[in-house]
Each structure stands twice: as structure tokens, then as C-alpha cells.
Amino acid sequence: MTTFSFDGEEVTAEPGQSVGAALLAAGYRSWRTTRHGGAPRGLFCGIGVCFDCLVVVNGRPGLRACLTEVRDGDVVSSQEGAGRDHLAC
Amino acid sequence: MTTSPADIAVIGAGPAGLAAAAAARGRGARVALLDSAGRPGGQYWRHRDGHNPIPASLRQDILAGHAVWHVEVEADGFVLHTTAGEVRARTVIVATGAYDRQLPFPGWTLPGVFTAGGAQAMLKGHGVPVGDRVVVAGTGPFLLPVAAALRHRVTGVFEAGSPLGFARHPLAVARNPGKLVEGARYLRALHGHRIPFHTRTAVVAAHGDDRVHAVTVARLDRNRRPVSEREIECDAVAVGYGFTPQLELPLQLGCDTRLDADGSLVATADEWQRASVPGVYLAGEVCGVGGAQLSVVEGAIAGAHAAGARPRRSLLRKRAALRAFAAAMHDTYRVGAGRPADDTIVCRCEEVTVREVRESVVDLGATDPRGVKLLARPGMGLCQGRVCGYATACLVAEACGRPVTAADLRGLAARPIAAPVTLGNLAEGVEDA
Ligand SMILES: Cc1cc2nc3c(=O)[nH]c(=O)nc-3n(C[C@H](O)[C@H](O)[C@H](O)COP(=O)(O)OP(=O)(O)OC[C@H]3O[C@@H](n4cnc5c(N)ncnc54)[C@H](O)[C@@H]3O)c2cc1C
Ligand code: FES
Fold first, then answer.
1. Is A89 exposed, middle or buried (0-12, 13-18, 19+ CB in 10 A)?
2. MF terms per GO, please (chain A) (predicted)?
């Protein structure tokens, strides 16, 4: 079993699962809001095509949750907009 | 990373690419088989750990985690720019497959609405069902394995077309008895799990606040207009209207394309799977959607020919039969543009509505999807029009009062960079220049 945190909550995953699949299995459906409408989004295509599932992993924003393999101890958090608001001036 | 050039670089390690690599290697060629994914198998073979269907002889040729973002033509071959360095080859076989095609409906951006392929990928690849009460919808035979795999978790299958259309193609069906058996097996499985299978019925809206909790389904009349509607509770939707070939690389290379019978833009291949550009081969769903078996056969033909051998006649016969079946399938499950309400989101990334797309044509005078893209921004977001390209092209053509053309689809499918790259990847390329 792999353990990681999502927005401060502990989540377990099976080895080899993607961050997106592990979050889905844990009951989460969304972990991002859109730039314009602030609408919730999560997995859609599941194969890296749609970019709806963007997530922050260990401080790195903009990763596709469906393609990013989860590792033990990862710190995952939801993403707002482009996930780079701290860069806005 | 620059190593000595391979004879043949195969891009995509799905059924088509694996078959191409095996055929070429079997005839003595030095092969590099690249895939952006960490594991080979493509969309079809999603072995979870412990089940590896990839032949041992091929494993040393596989370059996993190599997303090809640009292919450059040089005097004596090709340079493949990948997220893990450059790869050179004299010949390229493009086998990049396809992804689910979508027709927008109100609520399709709600969390809990997935592509049919995405639902399958979650289950087969990760062991995670997308929900406990799943509505499977869209069109085409692919909905059947998706529903059969989710079993008792499926509330119902809502097929916009009807498999009875195959009756118009008795010869194509007779040449592929296996397909008939397969279809019957899936229908029996649905029956066994008491999953209702509705034909000429579509999901026309999804409802919920922060996740889907219900859908409206409607019977479609002969003109595909929704008649009698009803609401069904669910916690997930798996929807797909066929597939869209992944054409960035063929378009970058300048390969000819055409409109296929299913309305998708596909790259044009000759009888040996050669593209219109010398040294480039195409195999699998990039040159027409037809299922994994057809991808394997096309890959085997491409790989053999690219390695200088004459592909076996039996392969050519098999390809002809499978293509006849694919044509019958496309005719049976025709996809219409649909008429989503004005405030339906078309482009999920830039959150562009049907109204904004139509206004670009009717009020602002755009005459093609590229013009609309500049005015209203559909296809300008992160996915670069991969998800909304087909629907946008259909809506624009409808607003212009004409059918969709290959040029419409090409305008939204051309992407100078085929895969997401970091600035570091780009800088590497500059250094080498
Ligand atoms: C999400 C999804 C799930 C599916 N599940 C099933 C199923 O369970 N059963 C079934 O019968 N059919 C399934 N299909 C249909 C499937 O597409 C075909 O039957 C079959 O996989 C096509 O084989 P292919 O080799 O042509 O392409 P694919 O299997 O799609 O293989 C293409 C490969 O190319 C790689 N690739 C693409 N672009 C690049 C690039 N720029 N650089 C490097 N690599 C790249 C991809 O990572 C992929 O591995 C699914 C389709 C999708 C989209
Ligand atoms: S779900 Fe589409 S990119 Fe991850």
C-alpha cells in the first residue's frame, strides 16, 4: 500500500496507481477549479488528452493526475486556475 | 541524448506500434519503439503489474516515457524530438492511436462525467470503477465492453444509434464472424447483469452542483431530435461517440489527410501503409478507427514493408475484411452534430459556449473553425482543441449551412508541438540547432 496526502487528508493507493485513480477510489471527484468560471473539475478522459485533471504534486502545479504515478509520501493538493496565482502581479 | 540512428522509429506502443516493431525486428531491422506512457500496450493492453503481454524480444527496443513532440525531416531520415531527448531514424512509423470523440451536452463538464475510454482506463489500468451507478452512453460497439467490464455498477446503456444498422451490411458481417460472436457475447453479459440496453437514446443533459447526480435521457426520432425525455439518477457517466485519431505528428510531417466514413479526419495510407511523405508509414487508428485487431494487422504490414520485406498476402486479406467491417460500423453508428442548447459549453478549457461559437459565424462573419477559434477561443486552451475540435467544426459548419470538410477538422488538429514540453525540452533543441 502507498500512502499520500491530499489537501491534508491521508489517502491510500495501490502501487502503480495514478494520483487521479487513487483520488477517484478514495471518493474524490474534483480537485481543480477552472480559470474563468471557477468550476470544479477532475478526471474526464483518463489518458492525458483533456487536461481537466490538473493537480499540484509536491509543490509542482499543472500535473495531469491521470498520468502521474503516485508515490509513497507524496503531498498532493488541489489546484486553482493555472496553479500559479503566487506569480500573478 | 544522441545515439546512432535506428533503421525504424515506431511512435506509439499500442497494438499497431507493437505489431509494427515486431514485424520490422523479425526482418532484421534495428527498431526504436517510443511511447509517451511509462508502459507499452497503448489503450488496449493495460496490464496491471504481473500481466505483461509484451513479447520479451521487443522489450529492449522500447523507449518508454518518450513523448514525441516534434518530428523533423532531414536529408537522410528523421529527428524525433522527445521529452527524453532526441532519437534519429531513417524511417518513421506513426502509430499514435486515437482518443474518445465527444459531443457536448449541458452538464458534460460536471465531475463524474467521464469519457467511455477513460472509464475503461480507470477500471482496466487501475482497478477503479468510476462509480456505483454508471450511465454508459454515446454510440458504437465500444460502449459494450465498457458496460460489460463495469457489470452490476451500470444503470443502463444508452446507444444513440442502433446495431440493427449492421443488417444493411451482410457481406461485411459475414467476412468477420468473430465480430458477431464478440457482440453477442457482450450483449449476453449485459443481459446476465440485468443491464438495460436502449437504442436510439441519448444523454441530453447531466445534472448536479459539484458532481453529477442525474442525467436526462431522450429517445431520438429519425432526424435525431430528442423526443420523450426522462431523468435517471446516477453517480457517474461514461460517454463516447467514437474516436478521434491523434494526428499531430502526421500533420507536422505534411502527410495527406482525408475525411473518413465516421466523419473523423484520418491520415491517408497506401496499400503498404505508407503516408504521402517519403519514409513515413502509418498504422492503426491514425489512419482510420477500426479496433485493436485492425491496428495489429496494419502494424504488421507497415513494419514488414518498412523493413524491406513484402507483407504476407493473408495480412492484406485480413485488413480488407476488417476495414469492410469498420466501414459497416461507421455507417451503422453515424454521428450527427447534435443541437446542444446555446449555453452549453463546447470548449471545456476556455469555457466557450455554443452561443459564442454560433455568434462568431452569424454576427462576426467567420467562415471556418480557425476563424471562430481566433474570435471566440474554442480550442485555444490547454488541450489545444483535442476534445472540442470535432464538435466545434460541426457547429461552425452547421452555422455556415454546409457540411464539415477535412479542412475544417485540419484547422483544429494542427499543433506545432504534439505533446506538452517543458521550457527545458525546448532549450535542449535550441542548443543543438
Ligand atoms: C481511453 C481509451 C480506452 C480504450 N479501451 C479499449 C478497450 O478496453 N478495448 C478495446 O477493444 N478498445 C479500446 N479502445 C480503443 C482503442 O483505441 C483501439 O482498439 C486500439 O487500442 C488502437 O490501437 P492503436 O495501436 O492504433 O492505438 P493506441 O492503442 O491508442 O496506441 C497509441 C499509443 O501511442 C502513444 N502516443 C500517442 N501520441 C504519442 C506521442 N506524441 N509520442 C509518443 N507516444 C505517443 C500512446 O501513448 C499510445 O500508447 C480504447 C480507446 C481509448 C481512447
Ligand atoms: S483526465 Fe484528461 S488529462 Fe487527465
1. exposed
2. iron-sulfur cluster binding; oxidoreductase activity
Q: Which residue has the cell 518498412?
A: B306
3-state secondary structure of B18: helix
For the stretch B387-399, pLDDT in tens is 999 999 999 999 9
User: Which tens digits make up the pLDDT trace of B45-61?
Assistant: 887 655 666 778 888 88
- Please tell us whether the domain made up of B102-241 is placed in CATH 1.20.1250.20: no
B349 near A CB under 8 A: yes
**Residues A14-40: what's their mean pLDDT?**
95
Kindly determine whether residue B114 and residue A18, on different chains, have CB atoms separated by under 8 Å: no
Structural domains in chain A, CATH included, are 2-81 (3.10.20.440)
User: Which ranges in B110-192 belong to alpha helices (H)?
Assistant: 116-126, 143-150, 170-174, 177-192
Evaluated on CA atoms B421, B65, B383, A65, the torsion sign reads negative
Please give the class, per CATH, of domain B6-99+244-331: alpha beta
The superfamily (CATH) of domain B345-413 is BFD-like [2Fe-2S]-binding domain (1.10.10.1100)
Residue B132 host element (H or E): none
Q: What is the DSSP letter of B166?
A: G
Whether A51 and B115 lie within 8 Å, measured CB to CB? no
Of the candidates A29, A46, A49, which has its C-beta nearest B383's C-beta?
A49
Identify the band that residue B337 occupies on the pLDDT scale cut at 50, 70 and 90: low
CA distance A57 to A60: 5
* pTM of the predicted structure, to 2 decimals: 0.95
Tell if the CB–CB gap between A50 and B383 is shorter than 8 Å.
yes
Enumerate residues 6+ apart whose C-beta is below 8 A from B367: B361, B400
Dihedral of CA atoms B201, B202, B206, B211 in degrees, nearest 10, equals: 90
Question: What are the cell numbers at B220?
Answer: 431520438
Residues of A in contact with B130 (CB under 8 A): 24, 43
Measure B253 CA to ligand 1 centroid, in angstroms: 21
Q: Say if A48 is an interface residue toward chain B (CB within 8 Å).
A: yes
Tell me the C-alpha distance between B115 and B123, whole Å: 13
User: What's the CA gap between B158 and B155, in Å, rounded?
Assistant: 10
Whether A39 contacts A16, CB under 8 Å: no
Grid cell at residue B193: 447483469
Interface test with A, best of B382, B388, B390, B415 (most A CBs within 10 A): B382
User: SS3 of B16, please?
Assistant: helix
Other C-beta atoms closer than 10 Å to the C-beta of B313 total: 8
